[in-house]
């Protein structure tokens, strides 16, 4: 029998062809075959969730919080998120501004469902986190990348945005940024806000790395004048508390938007397990010291990377101001990011992500995750630099 036709929406989520993750999948196949590979690919902590958080999760589950939790999120977690956001951004936030979601990825999808009708144009900054265009397609909107430039440290400018803004419905940004490690400056945020207001755009702000700031300051656009009523913010326990597998995130926004998003959650995810939410409240109660402890290895390796890269000329670095990555410009080798990454993997068993995985603006670059212990990281980066120098 012939299978019934699948929807165009589901079959075109990746836009056809490779999704740019061939190096990652090849590295995993090598590991499965028993080969030692230094994985500097995905943003996964090399330490796991703090045992005290797991004990809180276990205690909550054993205590019976295993049934359906409130779809918007437990009141205690929504309040905890609201208090954290108010303290960090200065924007008065209450539980009515918060929806708890199964991770920030779920929140990104919900935000585009909330702001875009089928066929609407949704803008996003290139380079971008790999799921952005597929998330937009899955929501029924049309993804439109807005390229930034390596020479401007990938800071988006109003002149980059203006040609694409007329008629668009939303703009997705990410600061601190994955993959570049760049934090958008106040000037950049002001320009973004100006374009959003001039063209009546919803601004969707992915802020999952807000606890990983090495230089400068993180500015949430929701805190800028006139922006709270047109901004949806994504956050997550994944990066701040090394709880990637717990799948607990949130979306912040105007009360009316959140009320509609709660309705969407009722018809899709139906909430987040209560014992995971209770563990998240416990994690927040440990204060900023725990977040700093989780972030410390990435700050240390970022400094180590800058020392190593400063001793050579073959590879240029985009100075990382935040997040758990460093972006390298390897165009002097004459290789694409993908070719460089594949050859490095085959010859030295070091896996990094080609810039092309994150958009055409990052072609000829590499994203290196700061996610293995210091000695292995330093040795791998030294090898990468020598590999590049032999090709310049």
Outline the structure in words:
With 392 residues, the chain is of the alpha/beta class. It folds into 2 domains: 8-48 and 289-389, Aspartate Aminotransferase, domain 1 (Alpha-Beta Complex), CATH 3.90.1150.10; 67-286, 3-Layer(aba) Sandwich (Aspartate Aminotransferase, domain 2), CATH 3.40.640. Helix content is 40%, strand content 15%. The protein contains 14 helices and 12 strands. The strands form 2 sheets. The chain has a 7-stranded mixed β-sheet with strand order 2-8-7-6-5-3-4, with helices on both faces. Strand 5 (170-174), helix 8 (186-198) and strand 6 (202-206) form a beta-alpha-beta unit. Helix 3 (51-62) packs across helix 11, helix 4 (75-89) runs parallel beside helix 11 (274-285) and helix 12 packs parallel to helix 14 (374-389). It is globular, with a radius of gyration of 21 Å. Its EC number is 2.6.1.1. Belongs to the class-I pyridoxal-phosphate-dependent aminotransferase family. It catalyses: L-aspartate + 2-oxoglutarate = oxaloacetate + L-glutamate. Residues 37-383 form the Aminotransferase class I/classII large domain. Keywords: Aminotransferase, Pyridoxal phosphate, Transferase.
Key terms:
392 residues, 2 domains, AspAT/PAT-like, 5-stranded mixed β-sheet, 14 helices, L-aspartate:2-oxoglutarate aminotransferase activity, Aspartate Aminotransferase, domain 2, alpha/beta, 7-stranded mixed β-sheet, transferase, Aspartate Aminotransferase, domain 1, aminotransferase, globular, PyrdxlP-dep_Trfase_major
List the SSEs and their pairings.
Elements: H1 8-11, H2 22-32, E1 38-40, H3 51-62, H4 75-89, E2 98-101, H5 103-115, E3 121-126, H6 132-138, E4 142-147, H7 158-161, E5 170-174, H8 186-198, E6 202-206, E7 231-236, H9 237-240, E8 249-252, H10 255-266, H11 274-285, H12 288-309, E9 316-318, E10 325-329, H13 337-348, E11 350-354, E12 365-369, H14 374-389
Parallel strand pairs: 1-11, 3-4, 3-5, 5-6, 6-7
Antiparallel strand pairs: 2-8, 7-8, 9-10, 10-12, 11-12
Helix pairs in contact: 3-11, 4-11, 5-6, 12-14
């Amino acid at each position: 029998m012939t299978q019934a036709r699948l929807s165009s929406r589901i079959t075109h989520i990746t836009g056809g062809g490779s999704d740019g993750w061939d190096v990652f999948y090849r590295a995993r196949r090598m590991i499965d075959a028993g080969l030692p590979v230094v994985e500097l690919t995905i943003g996964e902590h090399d330490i796991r969730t703090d045992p005290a958080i797991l004990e809180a999760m276990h205690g909550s589950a054993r205590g019976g919080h295993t049934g359906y939790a409130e779809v918007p999120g437990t009141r205690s977690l929504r309040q905890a998120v609201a208090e954290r956001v108010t303290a960090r951004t200065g924007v008065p936030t209450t539980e009515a501004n918060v929806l708890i979601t199964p991770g920030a990825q779920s929140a990104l999808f919900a935000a585009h469902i909330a702001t875009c009708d089928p066929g609407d144009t949704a803008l996003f900054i290139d380079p971008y986190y790999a799921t952005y265009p597929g998330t937009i397609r899955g929501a029924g909107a049309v993804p439109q990348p807005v390229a930034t430039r390596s020479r401007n440290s990938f800071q988006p400018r109003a002149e980059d945005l203006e040609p694409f803004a007329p008629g668009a419905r939303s703009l997705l940004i990410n600061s601190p940024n994955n993959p570049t490690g760049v934090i958008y400056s106040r000037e950049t945020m002001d320009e973004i806000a100006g374009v959003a207001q001039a063209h009546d755009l919803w601004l969707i702000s992915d802020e999952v790395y807000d606890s990983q700031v090495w230089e400068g300051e993180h500015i949430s656009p929701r805190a800028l004048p006139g922006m709270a009523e047109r901004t949806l913010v994504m956050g997550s326990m994944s990066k701040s508390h090394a709880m990637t597998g717990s799948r607990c995130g949130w979306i912040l926004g105007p009360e009316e938007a959140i009320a509609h998003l709660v309705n969407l959650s009722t018809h899709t995810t139906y909430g987040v397990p209560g014992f995971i939410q209770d563990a998240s409240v416990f994690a927040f109660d440990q204060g900023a010291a725990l977040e700093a402890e989780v972030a410390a290895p990435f700050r240390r390796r970022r400094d180590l990377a800058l020392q190593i890269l400063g001793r050579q000329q073959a590879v240029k670095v985009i100075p990382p101001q935040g997040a758990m990555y460093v972006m390298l410009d390897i165009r002097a080798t004459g290789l694409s990011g993908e070719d460089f990454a594949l050859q490095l993997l085959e010859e030295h068993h070091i896996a990094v992500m080609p810039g092309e995985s994150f958009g055409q603006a990052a072609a000829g670059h590499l994203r290196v995750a700061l996610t293995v212990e210091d000695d292995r990281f330093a040795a791998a980066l030294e090898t990468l630099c020598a590999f590049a120098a032999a090709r310049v």
